[in-house]
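Morning!

This is the sequence you dropped in the shared folder:
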Amino acid sequence: MSGSSAVSGAAPCRFAHYFVICGIDTETGLEPDELAALYQWLEADRQGRDPDTSATGENFEQSPLKRTFKSKVLARYPENVEWNPFDQDAVNMLCMPKGLSFRTQADQRDPQFHSFIITKEDGSRTYGFVHTFYEEVTSPQICSAMQTLYQMHNAEHASANPPSSSSSSSSSSSSSSMDSLASSLDEADSPTSSSSSSSSRRAGGYDSSRDTLYVSKALCLITPMPFMHACRRFLSQLHRAVTAASAPPLPLESYVHNILYEVPLPAPGRSLKFHGVYEPIVCQRPGLGELPLADFPLAEAFSLLGVENLVQVFTCTLLEMQILLYSQDYQRLMTVAEGITTLLFPFQWQHVYVPILPASLLHFLDAPVPYLMGLQSKEGTDRSKLELPQEANLCFVDIDNHRIELPEDFPHFPNKTEFIQELSEVLLSFGLPANTGAPPRTRSSPGSTPSTPGRERKTIALRQLEDDGRNGNLAGEELAVLELLQGNATLERLQALTKRTGVTVARVDALRAGVKAQSTEGQGGRTAAEEEELKNAKLNVQLREVFASRFTTMFADYEAFVIQSAPDLESWLTNREQMHNFDKASFLSDQPEPYLPFLSHFIETQMFATFIDNKIMSQWEEKEPLLRVFDARIDKARLYNVRAPSLRSSSYQRCSILKESAQAIEQRLMKIDHTAIHPHLLDMKIGQGKYEQGFFPKLQADVLNTGPTNNKWSHRTATAQRRKDRHRQQSEHLNLDNDLKEKYMQEARSLGKNLRQPKLSDLSPAVIAQTNWKFVEGLLKECRMKTKRMLVEKMGREAVELGHGEANITGLEENTLIASLCDLLERIWSHGLQVKQGKSALWSHLLHYQAREEKLEQHQAESPVSHVPERRKSDSSIAMPSLRVSLIQDMRHIQSMSEIKTDVGRARAWIRLSLEKKGLSQHLKQLLSRQALTKKLYKRYAFLRCEEEKEQFLFHLLSLNAVDYFCFTSVFTTIMIPYRVVIIPIKKLSNAMTTSNPWVCVSGELGDSGIMQIPKNVLEMTFDCQNLGKLTTVQLGHDNAGLLAKWLVDCVMVRNEITGHTYRFPCGRWLGKGVDDGSLERVLIGELVVPSGEEDPGRGCRTPPLQRSPSQTRRISITSLSGRGYKPTSAQIQEAIGEAVNNIVKHFHKPEKERGSLTVLLCGENSLVAALEQFFHHGFKSARLFQRTVFVWDFVEKAVAYMESADQMGDLQETAEPLGMTCQSLCHYVNAINSTPRNIGKDGKFQLLVCLGARDRLLPQWLPLLVECPVIQRMYEDTALLRDRTTVNALIGVLETLHDFPVTLEASLVKGIDL
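The structure's back. Tokens below.
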């Protein structure tokens, strides 16, 4: 068998691997399509009908010519190719996705072309190109079987329907034939579409005595690379040879043998010419540095969707959403799917990819993973009738109606407007209208339909110019002239001659300028088809270059952020899951602001992760081809230094290499590098495949199953192959065992994706169950990875706040992670749904639950919660009445928010709220505890009904309670929120109530509540107010009226009644004239209270409180009741100042959105004010005779009084000018603070002075003045820090570091100060 061994050696560079014929098997006759029956059974099961009644195999309701019958692979040559085994089920299913279709002479029988793709388990792809035509049925058995079916159908109908309605006979559930709609679309669009005369036929149906029966037959080429144009032309020539009046020049075997064994794949960067039956065919392959081969016409994808829609779908693809293409025409599905995936360069789609989903695989739409699938629309079916299991994250692309439906809130592609503009200009330069698609178009005439593969067509450009509805720029007459010129060979040659001699034909050239698209027409006497192909190829590459250059700009510096941590490939592969490969936070912080919403999502995708994996592995192995091309482009850009000046700017950079890229292709197609052997007579018995017009002959298998043995390039490749094998063995020796490596690689690649491709074959329920089991495992794994990532990132952040290491998560990233968690929950909830209701499966489940619970509540008069005995709280915590944790209550909060308009939005808001309240796991557990409800809503195989996985899933979510999220408060900033305020006095030492009129004002990061009077004798109140964000300060005061006006307040508690966050604002001081520091109002600084574990059992683990330390009492009360005994040492005081300043510096180094409250750092515990207060108190002679306390503010006032008097006496005149100015500023500030209408006490005034001094950068200048002032000797001991020059100088140095930062003060601090 030397032949076959040569074949195997040569094979990898053969142009085509198989030639396949599919059609009707006359031996077995008419078999109803079992897969279609299975599909009907699945449909019935999904809609909750009894499946057995609906699928009795044959569907008598439908007219027999409309039913699907089983097609078979009739022949394939060669039998098998070892490196690409033949997958019979898949090829049969994809060659004839709808099975066989029958026609009579009255119907449209135009041949059709479509392509398909088979993706193997390892992600490698094989392409199929199919030419389907109708062949007369000669077998009498089949004709009579069809006749019998018709008689049965008519009898059935006569009994079921009165005769009048028989015209509407075939409107069955699976294909409602609204003829008017179908024919207004394109008649040739789908093999089952009815022709205009169908109604007359349907009345009589098929009668073997009068009608000729035709059945579909498919010729298919299976190739390793997508040379679509070449294959299409080869197959259509082959079909022409069958239908032509005279026999073809050679037997058909010669042409098939030629393309299978004698036509090689073009080498990279070369073009190849081979011969079809009648005309030569040219194809070309891009060079190693160019964008990879893509032969599907992008122009068609753009004209079908419109530029803007296509960019939106492209963005959804990049963000790995679920994308469903919908069209009547298989080739359109393929064109759009391949178009979009080619544009992803240098990234690759990593998930389920089935551009043509056969009807029997519809349950795949249930897949809870990202997918890109194409679904053939039945003619006349309405989009609204299409039941899709999950739509929360679905991008639905209705190709025939140029409409898309996008998922909610998804980010735009960076510089989208300029990008669309550039693409439109490229299209226009080729004479194509850049219609932006979006509004659904209603079509008036079938003439304007975008190209359909079935028709023999004029060039696209011409057709689009004719269609002046879209582009009225050419008069019909000019068009006719141009067409005439194009069709006329003599003129063509004349033109070529004039071009060569430099003479111009003015009229024609003017026309050409008018139709830019034909700029190169007729050079070298090429045919219109070749012209068209060249134009398509040039347009394709230019459009792709525009996309590629966007990525080259966006990721120009990506290498700087790749983390190369492993010493060798093996250790990298084993630890792949635990490793960080890419420094996301630094990368994002380096990007322009407008890009962030998109980039932060994109760098979380599987395709980006795989891209980075490939980059890391390229240090040990050969670079992945796309990566190699991409890296080369980035290096080239760097060489020209395109990027440096525009670093971090979001200005748009246009693609600069459009011309070059198109030239490369043009040169290859103009000058053919290689011509394959011509088809020739084979050594075979003559007369066996006798020519019979209109019938495709039975080919002789013996000559087609083996290739030639003496083919020059087969030897060339065989030796190359041997060389490769030798090389591989050596590398296997050096490297780790290849199988092991492949296994690791697969595992590394399959992180987060569990099922790359559905198996297109035996679809027994067992297979479906197995597939779903894989999904369940995948979802669980994804949940584990996501929660772990959210924890690690967040813990990282908190660890930093507690002083460990560096934070690496930004609010943006956190938002992205939470959004992807919402998406994961939606996918889990939509897996295995019985019946879909609404766009969000999770919200619909919650609504069912709510309805049941509310019914129960009505039954039991009082809520069951009230049976829990209230625990008596100790006196010290007369705090808040506890907030009842209730899933239903949270739902009601969300339902009352008018800002959220959709179910998907409500579900997301509910997830965010539960996460913020640390109740997500508990809520979902409660939701799933109603097992009867879960059983009613979900099928047996659904994730939510797999007990063990469900438990693990809830456990993973429980771990998120370990960190504090503000993901609800920070996103819904405009909603009204009820707050509850409780004031806690110190009863032992003062009256609990005061006779005066107290007031309170609550401030947060987003605003304040305004001053609210507290009703007399009430210590608790609630108020509604627009979301204040995280709370920062409370101002508490009273008007000092009545006999018992003095009031000693321990603290104020404020709770957000929706999220349950409680803040404590410690006070511990008196409010009243003549007591403490005489303050009638205080600004209190808040801290978030972490509920103690016992009070709230459902919440599991907790984080340590954010900034807890024993200093709160120390801070409050150096001069107050409890703190008199406490004296920090001078070293402790200096350390505290350093720490406080450090914290402020760190605050400004965080990204703006992450900073939190500066007020806490200035005035809270461990703050700047607290530390300076200690500094000023050190060695301060505060106690006087008769125990009247003296405050630091008294010292400041005395110093200022001294300076003012000295100034009047002229003592300060001799001092340097700047010092005099400083002196004035200090006096000015102190007087302003003293004359404020607010009743703040002496400590409050000191706090205000420090804050204003920090804001206006005056503190370091004021300190020397206070130190120089003679008053200091009277009021301070000799050992006081303030009297030690070196210490004071050190302090001044420390405070000066704050000058670099813009300190802004909260309104509540500086209210009423007039400077």
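Headline: The CA atoms of residues 787 and 956 lie 6 Å apart.

More detail when I'm at my desk.
O.
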